[in-house]
Amino acid sequence: MAGRVSALSLPVGSGASSEFKAFRSRTPLFTVSAGRLLVTLTLPERLGAGEVEFARRLAEQAAAYAVEVERLYRSGRSSARTGKGAAA
Q1: Which domain of life, per UniProt (predicted)?
Q2: CB atoms within 10 A of CB 8
Q3: Contact 21, 31 (CB under 8 A)
């Protein structure tokens, strides 16, 4: 990827949410909400292989994220960046 890159860090907690919405006559939406910030992923009306691949990778990465969060929760640990949880 060339050029400038924008980045967004979205701290999430128990009040955060994510939502998938399907529609009959348009492409779906996927939304993540935390605090007063709402991020919605949109797609062009004409989908191609690239959009399908992105959706598959998003699902794979979200599943891997969930597995890691569950592992940390079960171990009684949390991220070292938050300073919360039991010491490793």
Answers
A1: Bacteria
A2: 6
A3: yes
Collapsing DSSP to helix, strand or coil, 40 comes out as strand
Distance in angstroms (rounded) separating the CA atoms of residues 76 and 60: 25
- Cβ neighbors of 8 (< 8 A, separation 6 or more) are 39
Backbone phi, psi, residue 17, to 5°: -145, 160
Tens-place pLDDT, residues 36-55 = 999 999 999 999 999 999 99
Alpha-carbon dihedral sign for residues 75, 77, 79, 39: positive
The residue among 35, 34, 33, 36 whose CA lies nearest residue 19 is 33
Amino acid sitting at position 72: L
